[in-house]
Amino acid sequence: MSSINSQESQLSGCETYIAIVVDESGSINATEAQQIRSGLTSFINSQAQSNITLSLIGMSDNDSTLRTDNIIQKRISSNTSEFLTWANSFGSGRVNKQSDYWASGLKAASELSVTPDIIVVVTDGMQVNNSDVLKSLYRDLNLRSQIFVYGVTSNANNISELVTPLTTFLEKPPILKNSGISILNSDYIRVADFSTLGNELNQLNTDLSRTQVGCVANVSIIQNKLVYPVLRKGLPVHKEAGTLVLKNKSRVALTLPAGTRIHNASSLDGLVFKIESTITIPGSSTQEVAIRIDGTPLLTGNFSAPVVLNKVGNPLGISINFNVTKELYIVGTSSGTTALQSTHLQIAAVGSKGVDSTKGIHLRWMLAGQLGEKHLPKGDLFTGPRFNFNKTDDFVKIYRAPYTKVTYSLNFKQTPNLVDNSNALWIYKTTNPERSVYVYFKNKAKYLSVKATINPRANPSSFIEAYGNNLIEIENKNELFFAAELNFNSVNNSSALRLETLSVAENTILASKRVTNRKTYSSSEVNLVRVVAENGRSIRFKANNCLLNTIHFEFYSDFIQHANTNGNWDLKGKYALSDKDSKVFEQLEPKLNSVNGKWLKYNDGEYVNITNYKNRWNKTTTGDSRNIKQVVARYLELSNVPNNPTGVETITFGEDIPVNEPLEGETQQYAKNLTEISNLDMLNIAANDYHIARMLGLGCIDIDDAVYSGEFIYLTEYTTFGNLEGGTSEKEVLHLSMSIPTSVNTERLPLPVQLSKIVPGLNIGSDESQPAKITDPDGYSFDGKKRYVSLFMDDVMDYDINTEFFKSSLEFDGSSFTFPIYLGVDYKIKDVHSTWVKPELAFDSEYKNINKNLIESYYEPAPIIIPESGKSILNVRQEEVGQKTYIYQGYGINIFSRASAGRSININSNIQPANNLMPPTGINTLLITEETPLMFTSQSEQLRYNAIPAATDKTLIRILFEYYTIQELLSYSIPDGMTNEDAVKPNTIYPDNEEIFADNFKLYYKDGLPQIEYASIYSIENSTTDHLTSIIKITEYKVLSTGEEIKVTLNDANKGKFIGGILTIGDQNYVIKEIDVILKAKQNTGDPDVFDYALVEVLKKEVSESILSDGDATLDSEQIKAIKKSENGLCTLVENMLTPSNWHQPGPLNFRVQYPPALKAVHREIIQPDAEDPTNLQVEKSRGIWNDAVIERVLEESYKMDAKGNFELDADKNPILLPTKKHLGLYRIIFSNYNLPQHPQFKASGENSVEWFNGTIRLFTKSAVKDGNTIPVKSRKEFKVVRTENIGQTGDLVVYINDTNFKLGDFINQTMHPDHDEIIGAKDEGSFTAGYVSQKVNYYPSYKVYLYADAGSGITASNIQPREGESTHYSIFGISTHSDALNYDSKISVPSPMYAVKIVEPQRPEEVEGSLYATRPDFYNRSTYTFTTRYNHKPYGALHYRANDEDLLSVLYKRDTINVIREELKKLGGNDEAYFSNRWKNFLDFDLLETKVNYETYPPENESELGYHFPVPDNLELIAAINDFIKWHNESQGKNVVEITSLTALNQVIITRSQGVQQDLLAVHFIEQAIHAAFVPLTEVPVIYEYIKGNDYIPSNKKQTIKDKSGHILKSTDADFDIAPMMKITNDSENRTQFTDFNLDGNSQNIYFYGVCEMDIKMNFSEFSKLLGPVKLVASTPPQTPEIKRIMPILENKVLGIKPAIQIELNTYQPEYKIKKINIYRATSMLDAQSIRTMTPVKEIVINEDTLSTDFNDVWTVYDEFDDLEFVPFGDGLFYRITVSKEIEYADPGSTEINPIITIDYAPSQPSKITATVIVDNVSPVSPIVEATGTVTGINESLLKPVVFRWQKTVHNGKYHLYKMKNQGNWEKIHKMFSNENNVILPLENIASYTDELVIKTNDEQRIYHHFKVLSENSSGMFSSEEKILTL
After folding, report:
1. Residue 1166: phi, psi to the nearest 5?
2. Percentage of the chain lying above the pLDDT 70 cut
3. What is the mean pLDDT of residues 1829-1856?
4. Which class is domain 1827-1927?
5. Which CATH class, in words, describes the domain spanning 1011-1136?
6. pLDDT of 1637-1690, one tens digit each?
């Protein structure tokens, strides 16, 4: 079988060439010959069907003779017999017995036309004539083919007979074939005889088939021509490396692609040797293959590896051999400036032992200052010319050097170079001019004391010893050190040292010093003190009982120079931004799993998952989200613009912003919500995560083996060309920043974050209350299911700046730690968790950590920003039910993303569900009475009513109410990590059986509305026992306008009803806590009780608001303010209807409405509120009926429409009925196999009953489903049921709903709009098959309750029906929800009133009066207008209207006509026309116009010929409306009035009395109606007169409040009810009201008109009142901000009489702006100039014709001449702003139409931009007259002391130079001073080298004269020239 398989393989495989060379010498005996024959025959027979071409070659008896019987390259399959004949003839003596000359057989093989794939030599020995010829022949043939020797030796010991010549031929040890190596890969086999020849040849065939010889190339490396460039450790190399010579022995070509590695390992010492270019090696050819090297050598030394190439042999064992030497680097050399420890480049280095992070040294650098704010290194990603900080080759270079101490020693035994005793200062100078060490003795008194006995120059060491334990500071002002060692001697057991190091952020003299080390050293530690400090400036200390001998400073510059000199620097690499994933990921993790699973994130067991960071880098994004790679790309793109170095761009931020308040019919308009972001800032913020910083080229991990022992210094190097000083010219700066010594053991972990306290509630700061009312004061949520607490922390330690020595007792070594930049919080619950809970409180649900086994674990912790001092760090939610102890622990996170934990703190919590029951809504109460026709009741209700016996109380009340998901829907966020399957289980999140749900409803009844008391406030005082309350004393009062006495009916019996009720003062409500009623003293026994006053204790406003909002507010004492009286001093008290006892007693009705058990099952449903965020899931809990349903579209009759949706009419003006019905939004919902029985409390008649009513159904609409998302993205939509079927009957439940949002798309065909959000699963009637389900629906039926007369509950006709004299009598009903679980009751619902009404016919209002002007616009440009109306009687209600001139003109005229009217009126002055009011009053005087052809002309013709009157109306719509009326009149009256084509006169008769009207209908009558139609109502609903407040009320700009927040109608007794906030009754007896229109646009140029209609209870309206108007607006909007065109100083010129001043030029305003004033404001500082309130008002210029000049028309020029100042402010910075004011006029409040009072006022503009200037003093100053004072004293009165000079101010911002005449008669300047004081005082002792005295006599009584003078120098440097000499 094997041979058959082999044949098949060869036939179907490759064409193979084989040559067998056979030794046929006499040394082969008969047995061996037979073995050879058998072997050859077996092979030939087995390959009879193969593709093998065989050559059988026999050896001859010399090297050169070729046998003629050789069979040369014939296919076995077609020449089998010939081959068998040759084989069978072997050994038959056909050739000479010496035929074992190898050269003869190999020569024949070498001359074959096709080189064989394999040559097998079969032999037992060898003869040769010329060994060199044989060797050459063997080598050449073996290079072109593969020679294999099947050799027989006499015994195994004689194998050298075979190996020795082969070694010679091959020039290498031959390869022996064994079981693991085939003939194809070996050189020989030694056997004892030829018995295995057949097996070997057949195995050869198998190997040929397996390796596809003949199909694939056989290529070998035959020569090594590799050339190695100089390789330096750490220096990247990308160079050519010579060639390899490859020989293809086969006929098949081999292609080697570019980049193919030529070694097994992924790299050799960081280098990769690979093929440079793709090359093809043809068959039987030789090619040189170019090799290149890429990579960075990691280590120095010699390296070797064999060359390994896939599909290429390496028979010669050629290898790669190279040497890596160390690279030499010199840092700090630059053609520009070098900035050592640059403020613009910083590096930090920390070590890691490998416990919490990757073992090695971690580096983090950053660009800082202006450079960091504007740039990140861009590597090779920037091309082009340099600008800003952009440049090519933009890398930060990182160097490393082993740390060695390089010190500068300061020996205090040596004499200082300079001693300044006056300043207690020594200076040691060095050969380096930049290095001088300053030694400050801070206790100057001690210093001077020691100096008195010890000369510091002579014995500095003794001086220091005597100075003792006093403060010394040693400083180098020019260079910074990073370490220092202090050597002390004279140390004993009492020795001690306190020491601090001071460091600076920048190497400048004025830089602030920070304490970076503070430590006390004991006697055992003092001998050698070493400190390490970054950027060390100085060391200060106090040494006790020990003497400082030397200090060894380690300066940054010394170490760098030393490392340069000794070649110690290694280049770690060049780093920058990259857009190559491979580069970024290499920086993220330099070696596989070196970070992944090794770096704690930040807790035990939780490790960094590198995959997360790779995902952050290049994850797929949608919308506006970006990965880091995209942010990098945007930064690179945008920062290529010169004026956008930080890559700022504008993005959409959240949802669009509404920009208008649409009126009815208008659409809401939106603007994009845009914000600016800096891509650079985003990258820098992201880089606070160390792993991201590395990806961005801002950090690296040094994991070289070399760093695992010893300390190292790291240096960053970066070159800038941008000008860091703000200029535009380039300035090359080389920035260097060096780390302090670091080893793997100096981990410098962050300071821990220490939690300080836990505060209940959501707190921002420790002293601030929670910003939102979502918890009670103890932090518990109002549903009781959660508790919120806020965690606070201690402030993180920071370095003290410029502080005194040892200011704090806190000691630290700043080189041993890092500061946290973020924090984290762990938590656990005592007795519940043994370890900290994972994930943490703050986590990122998008990414998960891994554990140490590299298995995905919990969500990543999210670092928390460290808050401001005193602010909370985290608001925590607790949810475990019951008494629990929560434990919290904080930890700090540094820039290396490593953490240190702080202490733990705990808090006890007890969580229980709260009472959040809500009362029913939609309560509607109706007293059922007999009714024909039916309007408010149904036929069944009439039957129920009629069934009540006539002789009994026929009271029957219907109460409708709803209770559905608005009351009981619960929504919970699904915690991260919880599956959806678990979320819908009844016991997860919050157990269903522990929820508080309704079980029944309580009903309440009260006769009448809530009781209200009206009173006057006598006084308001704070309670002395409770700071939350005030005591309000109330009394009765009299209404002065009417004389009505308002009585208070409070007494001890009824006062309890008001406890908990509301006391209202003005618009403020206060909860009543207690009432004490005081009665007047009785005159006689038996007199009735008479109310005197009451003391009402109320909760203050803030507390009351908290109570009214269910206590949902957190208060502190500072929020609570005192209660103040209202302007009218009145208040009202309202009965508390939330208290059950205030309803009809004995309490709620004894009839409760059940929530049936069938509806109580809790159903859970998962919702994804954010369609774009699949992680944000919520579970909703609801009850009611849940069932599958079929949803049908119901077809209805419809009428024909046009394309715009307007109904088309037939010839009779009737809508045209369509022949087919259409779907218009009505749906039928059929519950599948579900029947709803009637409510369990249903009764047919005669007793209280409950039945199901329509209710609410919840359905999913299309918008709730997102493609590819199986979870709804919106909650179910609620639809009100309009009709039901089969409730309480047989058959499936059916309900009907009307989709109020339904809209048509095609109006003609009346098909649904394609974008309509239709109900899911809805289908046309009859289009679904049996078993079809549209969706599962949730149905809450509402409740219909019937109550019969019940004397016990007070429900009787006598209580409910109106009393004698009443037009309306009210009863109220309330409902509360009850839960049996914890016996909870909800609040009682808003009372639902039930009433009866009397009707009064409306009449036309009489007087409508108002002023000429509206008020001035307020801050929001809103004006108001107030007018009064008088009625003939007390109306039921009224509606107030407004229109403007544009409205009126538009209904009467065409647009072209209106334009003409406007132009004509403008010529006459527009709104300022003299006859303005006359014209418009005439326009609206319809009674007068009945007799007029035209409107009146103004000005009258007797005054002017330029008069104008309104034309007769020509609006085509008006004419069409008149004609419509005519048509209707003709049709209804059977008349034939002719239609009109136009109006020709105001009194034109349209229809005469003869045509069936009571009086002639004139054109003006239709005009009047058209104008009335142009008026719009000013209130949403008509105002009910009964509810208008009295004269003491102040109208306010509030909307009418007649509905609650749920949209339900409020009762008139409701505290929120306010139907007329803008009105009041000013005179009850005259029925006079006042209405204020608060919503006039103050910017409008229109004029306005007002009108009023009265209304009755049936909403019938009276005629319009006479129209009021025109009303003008006050144009008080601020004028445009003035623009300062130029500002310049005017220099003084005394010759020309020019005073110094500042000239300011403004752009002018057009005359129509009415600018009348200019105001100048001045300040001397930019801070004061920020607001004109802090500036000095300099001048006000009134603009009139005298003011304006010719030049003034183009530019307005004003001057500041400093008239308000005593001195001109020469040299001061002067800052100016300008305002302008326009003139406005308006009517005085006391103005009347008869006696108008017009007020002139001014409206100022916003101030101009700040403009700065300086005025120069160009006049030489005057020398002051110097005076001096002093007392003559001393021996012989020889002294004058104290000498004090005085003179008057002569310069501003100048200097005074004091001179004294020397003995030689010349002047010597002894002092210079600056002063702006008016009286300058200079004590002599303030002058250097002088005391306070002058010697005025010699010892021999000779007087000594002292001459002084003072010269002034002004701010321009000009000196006074006069000499005014003072002689003393």
Report:
1. -95, 135
2. 96
3. 89
4. mainly beta
5. mainly beta
6. 998 888 788 899 999 999 876 577 889 999 998 998 887 777 888 988 889 898
**Rounded Cα distance, 374 and 386, in Å:** 15
Whether 1111 shows a pLDDT value over 50: the answer reads: no
Parallel, antiparallel, or unpaired: how do β-strands 528-544 and 472-476 relate?
Answer: antiparallel
φ/ψ of residue 416, rounded to 5 = -65, 150
β-bridge mates for residue 513, sequence order? 504
- Kindly provide the residue ranges of all beta strands, DSSP E only, lying in 761-814, ordered along the sequence: 787-793, 812-813
> Percent of the chain beyond pLDDT 90?
58
**For position 1365, what pLDDT does the model report?**
62
**Arch. (CATH architecture) of 408-565:** Sandwich (2.60)
Opening angle at CA 1044, ends 1042 and 1046, nearest 5: 140
Strands (E), 1432-1537: 1437-1444
Q: Which two tokens stand for residue 672?
A: 């994009």
How many residues appear in the chain?
1928
Q: What is the rounded distance in angstroms from the CA atom of residue 1217 to the CA atom of residue 1204?
A: 17
Q: Which amino acid is at 1082?
A: K
1684-1814 and 1827-1927 agree in CATH topology: yes
Q: How far is CA 175 from CA 180, 1416, 1703, in A?
A: 12, 112, 106
Longest dimension (CA), the chain: 173
Report the DSSP beta bridge partners of residue 1783: 1802
Domain borders along the chain are 2-215, 222-326, 337-401+571-738, 408-565, 756-845+857-911, 926-1000+1152-1359, 1011-1136, 1408-1670, 1684-1814, 1827-1927
Q: How far is CA 1136 from CA 1139, 1143, 1610, in A?
A: 6, 9, 16
Question: Mapped to the 3 state alphabet, what secondary structure does 1323-1366 carry?
Answer: EECCCCCCCCCCEEEEEECCEEEEEECEHHHCECHHHHCCCCCC
Residue pLDDT, tens place only, 1777-1833: 999 988 887 766 666 656 667 778 888 889 999 998 888 888 888 899 999 999 889
Pick among 2.60.40, 2.20.140, 1.10.287, 1.10.10: CATH of 1684-1814: 2.60.40
Residue 391's closest CA among 721, 138, 107? Answer: 721
The alpha carbon of 1125 is separated from its chain's Cα centroid by a whole number of angstroms, namely 45
- What is the three-state SS of 1845-1882? EEEECCCCCCEEEEEEECCCCCEEEEEEEECCCCEEEE
In this structure, which amino acid lies at residue 1705?
E
Predicted pLDDT at 10: 39
Residue 1752 has pLDDT above 60, yes or no: no
pTM attached to this predicted model: 0.52
Contacts of 800 (CB under 8 A, 6+ apart): 514, 515, 807, 808
- Looking up tokens 């914890």, which residue turns up? 1382
**222-326 maps to CATH 1.10.3470:** no
Residue 236 has pLDDT above 90, yes or no: no
Using CA atoms, how far residue 1815 sits from 518, 1000, 1737, 1771, in Å, is 52, 86, 18, 6
Q: How far, in Å, CA of 1716 to CA of 1803, rounded?
A: 10
Q: Compute φ and ψ for 41, nearest 5 degrees.
A: -60, -45
Predicted confidence at residue 1396, as pLDDT, reads 63
3-state secondary structure of 1633: strand
Q: What is the pLDDT of residue 8?
A: 38
Dump the DSSP string for 803-837.
--TT-SS--EEGGG-B--SEEEEEEEETTT-SS--
Q: Which stretches does DSSP call E strand in 114-171?
A: 118-123, 147-152
Q: How confident is the model at residue 1747 (pLDDT cuts 50, 70, 90)?
A: low
pLDDT band for 769, please (50, 70, 90 cuts).
very low
CATH class, range 2-215:
alpha beta
